[in-house]
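We treat protein structure as text, and this decision shapes the records that our systems exchange. Below, we set out a record of this kind in full and without editing:

***
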Amino acid sequence: MHAMAKFLTRNKGFITFMLCMIMFRSAVADWNVVPTGSMQPTIKIGDRILVDKAAYDIRLPLTHISLLHLADPQRGDIVVLDSHAANERLVKRVIGLPGDEVAMRSNVLYINGHAASYALGSYSGIHDDLKNPAHYEIERYGDMRHAIRLSVNWPSPTSSFGPAKVPAGQYLLLGDDRDNSMDSRYFGFFPRNEIVGRSRYVVASLDPQHHYLPREHRFGAALD
């Protein structure tokens, strides 16, 4: 006990700093490594994204308990969630809000009976395109505008679904890589309290296909 007390006394500044850092990352802001391509082309494999954990709630550190409700996720937001159904942390885009009726027909999105509009997009540097060619489109619905990736040879069996009505307190989330994303089409609607933050920027990016060299042009990049 005496040795422990001496250790704590000698290192109280460092220990205090580490505790403050843990609390800050838990309740205010954190970064998240993206190891999969489910949000391509918006988020590339190896991106480190900034997670604003105070975007929607002020939470009790190290818990999902909301101390102060600030806002709710909006359509088009990129959110980070701790999914019970998937048993892992996910990064997806908000598509359906509580009360919305959402459907998809051959990768064309319908919300409350109205189809999203699409325009051709062009993206380079997506390594998956070498083995699985894809084309890109800009999806628009209301104020939401973002790129999606659609496989040429391997369309997803979930490219059509619904219509399904989003229950109160839950959200329909999809990946931007529509034919390569485990999202609400597999796990169902996601509860509001599982959403821990919103991401709008890349902090840093390392390219796993090139010995994890930095992608300097991705540092600080905005996420649409």
Notes: The domain at 2-218 is CATH 2.10.109.10 (Umud Fragment, subunit A). The longest helix spans residues 12-27. DSSP finds three helices and 17 strands in the chain.
